[in-house]
Specification:
alpha+beta
Length: 106
């Protein structure tokens, strides 16, 4: 009986860890007239794609420039982070607001 439990743990734990590791993080540098910041998307189990998240970031900051993250330039900038399903949905402008209003995101 003990060996079965150990075998199950040995098989199941790596699969859970692997599924969490499949999430992708996207970082964008946002340059506005008054401020610079980094917007970080931690997608977790969902991944709407880099370009959708770039467009969503640009929509949240309409008068700013959005570019790829550069560690040398951006590592000390403040970060705005959206994490996993609820965070990513909440971070997507307009449609995220509507979805969170009706279904909640927290």
């Amino acid at each position: 009986m003990k060996s079965r439990k150990l075998w199950c743990i040995a098989v199941l734990v790596p699969s859970f860890l692997a599924s969490e590791a499949q999430g992708t993080d996207y970082l964008f540098h946002v340059s506005c007239q008054n401020t610079n910041l980094v917007v970080e998307w931690k997608t977790g189990d969902i991944n709407p794609g880099r370009e959708l998240l770039r467009v969503s970031t640009s929509t949240k900051y309409p008068n700013c420039t959005v570019s790829d993250y550069n560690q040398a330039r951006d590592r000390n900038l403040p970060r705005e982070t959206y994490e996993h399903v609820a965070g990513v949905i909440a971070g997507i402008t307009l449609i995220g607001t509507i979805i969170c209003h009706f279904f909640g995101c927290g």
